[in-house]
Write a structure and sequence with these properties.
Layout: E1 8-12, E2 18-28, E3 35-43, H1 46-63, H2 74-85, H3 92-110, H4 120-133, H5 138-154, H6 188-201, H7 204-216, H8 220-224, E4 231-232, E5 237-240, E6 243-246, E7 252-255, E8 264-267, H9 270-289, H10 314-325, H11 334-348, H12 352-359, H13 364-371, H14 376-392, H15 396-399
Antiparallel strand pairs: 1-2, 2-3, 4-5, 5-8, 6-7
Helix pairs in contact: 2-5, 4-5, 6-7, 7-9, 7-11, 12-13
Protein name: Tyr recombinase domain-containing protein
Pfam families: Arm-DNA-bind_4 (PF14657), Phage_int_SAM_3 (PF14659), Phage_integrase (PF00589)
Keywords: DNA integration, DNA recombination, DNA-binding
Length: about 400
């Protein structure tokens, strides 16, 4: 006698934790004529998975198979894709950020239309409109919108993906000089001026936070997720193994870095180590005043009022306050401190591989594409390099007594 196959399967998630899932056959879809099954995953225990499977069994037995309408709107198909497919494949912060993009940009444009009635021409017009209104992000909207059509095609609801057949529009380039170039990093002197202003006229916590970003290249979310256990003062190292992200309704949550390379241990200089020690002393006094119990997982940067997770938008608010009162400062975003760290590392002579490892990039192309900014000093030096070469046939390095090949 054949034994019945166990529908509950154990699997390992991307973060290394164990979870349970099951697939259940639901019968024949009257719309597509194909077999229908559902996959449920993410159950923390075998018992939880078995309970969900039993409830689904009862629901199907009592209510039958819920049939899809043969004329669904784009938004209805999106909801299926989002809940049944996308949410099972990505982290919570990712799928809620994606949901915001759909709610703000894609569903208002396509959501109410019958998905079968949306043509290639309609998609082309919408893509052109996104390109015109959002030249820096339009390709993301096109890609996401196409995922819904691809899903509808895979379940037999439409014959082909119309978004896949459009010609990708090209943003109209502004005439050089029309708009000032936004440079989201500081040179050495600009950074020192910014940090000096923070140190002298703003809460110590803000100075420590932005100094840490500037001297380590940490992402904002990585810094906000740091605990004191992540910092080894004896060996002057800092370990990144988590990040602060935004979930549903803007809720702050801690999750693993997106890639394996994002988990890293980097060195910190003695001044940064001393600065962190001083901040830990100030923080302990504040926690004592609040009469709260210290935690073994105490955050390095926590909310003043309850010692909980900070809002990820708070650092930008701090900078906005700084810039309003100091118009002469070069303005960068929190992520600009990471750009600054990389640019100054290159200027100081660090190799591409060293910068890649320190910043936690899984692909060196990211390091090359995003962080090979030329600082102001580098731009001014370019003319000297060319002039010296034309005059004496030597590179600037050779004229300074360096080897022609830095590797020699």
């Amino acid at each position: 006698m054949a034994t019945k196959q166990n529908p509950i399967k154990k699997y390992t998630k991307k973060d290394g934790s164990t979870a349970y899932m099951f697939k259940k056959y639901l019968g024949i879809d009257s719309v597509t004529g194909k077999q229908r099954e559902t996959t449920r995953r993410g159950f923390a225990s075998l018992k939880e998975a078995k309970l969900a499977y039993a409830r689904l069994d009862i629901d199907v037995a009592e209510n039958g198979i819920k049939q899809r309408s043969s004329n669904r709107a784009y938004k209805e198909v999106f909801e299926d894709w989002f809940n049944l497919v996308y949410k099972t494949k990505v982290k919570e912060s990712t799928y809620w950020n994606t949901r915001i993009i759909f709610d703000k940009h894609i569903l208002p444009a396509l959501g109410s239309y019958n998905i079968k009635a949306i043509t290639v021409t309609a998609c082309q017009k919408q893509a052109n409109a996104w390109c015109k209104d959002n030249p820096n992000r339009y390709d993301r909207y096109i890609n996401y919108a196409g995922m819904i059509f691809k899903y509808a095609e895979s379940i037999g609801e439409i014959q082909s993906n119309p978004m896949q057949k459009i010609i990708l529009p090209t943003p109209v380039e502004s005439i050089e000089g029309d708009e000032p170039e936004v440079i989201n990093f500081c040179d050495r002197q600009e950074l020192l001026s910014l940090l000096k202003e923070l140190k002298e006229n703003y809460p110590f916590k803000r100075f420590v936070f932005f100094s840490l970003l500037a001297y380590t290249g940490l992402r904002k979310g990585e810094a906000l997720a740091l605990t004191w256990r992540d910092i080894d003062f004896k060996h002057q190292t800092l370990t990144v193994n988590k990040t602060l992200a935004v979930g549903k309704n803007g809720t702050a949550l801690i999750q693993k870095p997106k890639t394996k390379a994002g988990v890293r241990t980097i060195s910190i200089d003695s001044d940064t180590a001393d600065l962190l020690k001083e901040w830990r002393y100030h923080q302990k006094k504040h926690i004592d005043l609040l009469a709260m119990m210290p935690s073994i997982e105490q955050l390095v940067f926590a909310k003043d009022e309850d010692n909980g997770l900070m809002n990820p938008r708070t650092p930008q608010t701090w900078l906005d306050t700084l810039y309003r009162k100091n118009k002469s400062l070069h303005q960068i975003t929190p992520h600009g401190f990471r750009h600054t760290h990389a640019s100054l590392l290159f200027e100081a002579g660090a190799s591409m591989k060293q910068v890649q490892a320190r910043l936690g990039h899984s692909n060196i192309k990211t390091t090359m594409n995003v962080y090979t900014h030329v600082t102001k000093e580098g731009k001014e030096e370019t003319a000297d390099i060319f002039g010296e070469f034309m005059k004496n046939g030597k590179s600037l390095g050779q004229s300074l007594g360096q080897n022609k090949n830095p590797a020699q």
